Amino acid sequence: MNERINDKIIEIEKYLEELESVLPKNFEEYSSDWKIRDICERRFERIIEAVVDLGFLIIKERNLNTPEDDKNIFDILSNSSFISPELSEKLKNAKGMRNVIVHEYGKINDEWVFEAITKEIVKDVRDFLEALK
Fold first, then answer.
1. Domain ranges (residues) in the chain
2. Which listed CATH number (1.10.10.1100, 1.20.120.580, 3.40.50.170, 2.30.30.210) goes with 3-132?
3. Among 21, 55, 84, 100, which is least packed by CB within 10 angstroms?
4. Can you say whether the dihedral through the CA atoms of 97, 103, 106, 107 is positive or negative?
5. Model's pTM, two decimal places?
6. What is the helix, strand, coil percentage profile of the chain, to 5?
7. Which residues, 6 or more positions from 83, have their beta carbon under 8 angstroms from its beta carbon?
8. How would DSSP label each residue in 41-78?
């Protein structure tokens, strides 16, 4: 792997560690502390942006089809057997949630975000990194 890909993997791992270091114990703690919510949402955003960047780098390095949009990256990686179709769907959903958080389409559903940060994103992104190795 090239240096840019390795640097991006290190960046993602750093963001995952930062998120894990502030994860609240329960939804009540999450929903009642705006600082924790802000930190978790920002780390979630950065993780997904870095995962998308890494996907682009892998696609470019392997001369795969050029994605039409960010979500299409995961389809290309799945169709090329880098990741499973299931992981592709999970990452596309995470990308969609990232867009909701960033652009605040309506009110952000704190329960969905809490569920994603405590039960999904860390595992899914670690699965993604493992699949690329």
1. 3-132
2. 1.20.120.580
3. 21
4. positive
5. 0.91
6. 80, 0, 20
7. 74, 77, 91, 127, 128, 131, 132
8. HHHHHHHHHHHHHHHHHHHHHTT-PPPSSTTHHHHHHH
Question: Is residue 44 within 8 Å of 116, Cβ to Cβ?
Answer: yes
Distance between first and last Cα of the chain: 9
CB contact at 8 A, 40 and 113:
yes
pLDDT digits (tens, 9 = 90+) for 86-120: 999 999 989 888 877 877 755 778 898 899 999 89
CA 117 to chain centre: 10
Among 4, 13, 3, which Cα is nearest to 129's? 13
Question: Quick one: tokens of 119?
Answer: 């039960």
